[in-house]
Amino acid sequence: SSTVRLLTSSQVITSVVSVIKELIENSLDAGSSSIEVRLESHGLDRIEVVDNGCGVTAEDVAFMAQSHFTSKISGVSDLDSLATYGFRGEALGSLCAVSDVNVTTKTGKDDVAMTYSMDRKGCVLNAKPSHLPKGTTVSACHLFKNLPVRRQFYSNKKKLREETKRVEDLVKQFAVIHPDVRFVLRADKSVVWQKSAVCSHYQALLHVWGSSVMAQLLHIQEKNQDLLVEIEMFLPKADAAIVQMKTEQGFYFVNHRPVFMKDVEKVLKQAYSAVTSDDRVKKISYAFLHVQVSPKEIDVNLEPNKTNVLLHKKDEINEWISQLIQSSVFPRPE
Ligand code: ADP
Ligand code: MG
């Protein structure tokens, strides 16, 4: 029923940020090299994500916003080799349940783009030709207009501004972990933040943090053959002045997914506070950490919004990271 649909939707689509997260992930899964996020009235009037990816084929259009439709995996066993963000087939359908969705799309084989207006059930209401180039544009208008309580939350100007800040942080996370993709964030037509395509995580971070910060960071890259894990980190040098700063500027990823890593943050805090010998180090301000493991070694199936990823060998990996920080940031004098 439509009530059940509204309830399940509200687990995936909980906020403006969650909409942007799902749409950016779809654009990345589609192989886009340019992703533009547009907000009108902090996303409440309109959220739009424009990409230049593979587009949705004419055969898939009718299904794309149906519950559990995904073009990305065909069975549970595929989860062991998951290389995409999406696999549940829930986001687009959920978005249709809580906003007015239009999808404009053109594949490499189509002569012309088509714009599809979707109804609450994720069915195509009507289709008309459009002039956009190859790629997909999803726009969601009047988010939560049928969920008065959720809409009420956004009547507060301060909360709206905070939400837009979170959108900016999220766009930066994806931009940092996908250096080769161009990202633009616009709010009511003006550019809030943008990054052109660059070649490395270093260059992407340079764009976000600036050269004086980068000069104080160490670049660490290691593999652990036993745990089958790889890590790339940018961390403050032992004597870096910026360690004392307390604003939160960390980027944490597992297999390209932005995640919370409370344990790793703790490991970092311990390592740095041990040398500073006072408790000024509340948070490691500038940290980039990307853990890559075989898809078999993680469980991304915990929650619909997937910000918590379960590493099967979490304790061993944290221990390894801790030793790595000790030996590369704080090596013992010979
Ligand atoms: P999932 O990402 O889990 O497959 P979604 O509900 O997010 O589920 O998307 C449903 C389907 O719609 C995708 O599997 C894909 O085929 C198609 N799709 C959605 N967004 C895009 C996009 N930006 N480019 C190409 N295809 C898309
Ligand atoms: Mg998706």
TrEMBL record:
<protein>
    <recommendedName>
        <fullName>DNA mismatch repair protein S5 domain-containing protein</fullName>
    </recommendedName>
</protein>
<comment type="similarity">
    <text>Belongs to the DNA mismatch repair MutL/HexB family.</text>
</comment>
<feature type="domain" description="DNA mismatch repair protein S5">
    <location>
        <begin position="205"/>
        <end position="330"/>
    </location>
</feature>
